[in-house]
User: Fold these one by one.
Assistant:
Number 1:
Amino acid sequence: MAAAALKPKPTRKPTRTQSTARRPVLLDSPYAPVEKRALPPGRPREWYVTHNRRLKAMRLAIALLDMGVYLPDQARNDRIRSAAETIGVHPPSETTCHMVRALMRYAR
């Protein structure tokens, strides 16, 4: 019995919501974008076009959410284009505007 009493207690694994950081993580404000990297070579041109369109739609959807536009019905093309001007990207096409609304719809 004495050997059992000398055994160290097993350490508990942190739960999913429990932080494992040793100190609090400070959020950078204002936000600085991540450094851009080159896209992988060897893909068809259409892949790059679609990839960049998705990234732009995601940026615009986030900007609209920050502006208080939460429903896809509120995000008309002119509102999406004004958000693009606000964040400093080229005005989006009809296809990109449609993609922004789709992202807002599926995120709910």
Number 2:
Amino acid sequence: MEKTIRQEMKVTWVLKALMAAYVVTGLLLLLLTLLVYKMEFSEEKVTAGITAIYVLSTFVGGFVIGKLSKMRKFLWGLAVGILYFGLLLLISFGIYRTLQGNGTNILTSFLLCAAGGMAGGMIS
């Protein structure tokens, strides 16, 4: 019985961390959209902004789960970063019916999301 309760708590931690990460993603994407509209950024700047949003969002998710778990924070943060990337991949695949970008871009995004989550967990 107690094992089930602990597992439910861990699932709740992950969901809270992912929710925090996606709320930050939404807010920062909205801000980036406004900046692009007002300042007419180049494609390179928009791509850099999106990459920064991935890292910041996974950092926040890792930070949240690190505060909740209090043990093995960097592993929990890494897990949240990987799950965040996985959900991004699923959403992208669901919308476009294909993976956007080449293998190098996808691997780079994966590593940045994983590292951002792990860094957030370690800092928490």
Number 3:
Amino acid sequence: MDDSTIVCKCEEINLAEIETAIKSGAHTFDDIKRLTRCGMGPCQAKVCTNLVRQIISESLDKPLSDIRPPKMRMPLKPTRISALVGNEESSSVISVFNESAPKEGDEDHD
């Protein structure tokens, strides 16, 4: 692969940026993610994970099985925008973030 080859299409991160991150001490996908934003685009690393892991494996001369995939963060399932803005009666956001929904019997203490 050429250094200008795009590895993460969502964030337009190329091979040279990944290799620079590795030379700077990145040893995991999450390290590279923190340094480059690789895997933080709309696909949330679904497209670039395996390629980045392979690059790390080859650069560090480690078996691919030793390179963990990135950590997944909430939401773990798609959430409708209308749920986030409060236009839906039964919002999946409320079940994830209980503090955003008033509990029965709670009074306003402002």
Number 4:
Amino acid sequence: MTRILVIGGGIAGTATALALHKAGLEVTVHEAHPGTAEDIGAFLTLASNGMRALAQLDASDVVTSRGFPLRTMRVLDGQGAEMAHVPLGEADDTLLRYRCLRRGELHAALQAEAVRRGIRLTHGARLVSVENGTDDVSARFADGSVATGDLLIGADGLNSAVRRSVAPGVEPVYAGQSVFYGYTRTAPVAEDTGHITMVRGSAAAFGYAVSPDGEVYWFARVGGEAVPAEELAHPTPSRWRDHLVALLGEDATPAAGIVAASTDDLMATHATEIPPGTPWRSGRTLLIGDAAHAASPATGQGASMALEDAVVLAKALRDTPDLDSALSLYEACRRPRVEHNITASGEISRGTRPPSRAAGGPPQRPGDDTLIARLDWHRELPTDADADTGDVGQAG
């Protein structure tokens, strides 16, 4: 097997292409958007496990040239009192520090690196259908073109077109919160960069971080009814801002002031998830990243889990003699870990996570104790990966 088609040029797809290329496989990426600037507004954090995966792809530099590092996390209660101030992940290692950056910046950086390495990346390729054959798999696109390979990887995100052929009828499920993102340079906060502050308010979960040049990145997760689809399609940022200021103003924290100082560049989305147990494979087609295991953003692990997927999949294909065995090994390595994240993140979003667990740091995940070995490019994957059932090891 040498020819692999990747559908989706976002974080999961482009990182997977980098990993497959490093493993010596021929890979092409087909991205539906016409350029690299989609989803430029919202930001994300890459945790230490995601940064470790990037290091295995020799892609640390292209990412650390964007955004800014986060070394610690502060937690405030609804009265603004500090409940905790703890290190984030592997903060002592410059390559593995958490990193905060705009999602579109990460897309563009990974795509540029893929092109630099000679990986073919086609924009404007909107998938219409997937046809699995005995010896190959074909992707048909809206412009009438067809691409054929030995394996097709669906890395096309939450609303995956590839998923329709692998798991017909499976759709994202609302996880109980609407999520808002914004920025401001005039917020009434005077804080150093290098940490993220989480506010456990009475009406919403809020977080913010200050960039080295003084820009405040913030998000708010609000429970209850989802923002109507019509509002998402035709945004009303000023109304969202007023609504958030009223909610957050019930507490004595900086949150309301930060939102009030923000411009109309507010963004909103739904916290959604793919139900655990969703099939990932059909014939020569495999789902990865959010297409397979999207979780609500409460644990902040979506992008990092996708980067882990990329490394583990490439190693499974590199080290295993046939396709079925490789995909079985990949799924055994990944499913317990990512579905634990779906469950834990969904519990936080819905407010059903037991307080004793929610009060601590990042939820422990199956596979944390073996993660370093699994991501190490120079080590083969273990064949007993289905033994991942424990909640032990390092936080990501």
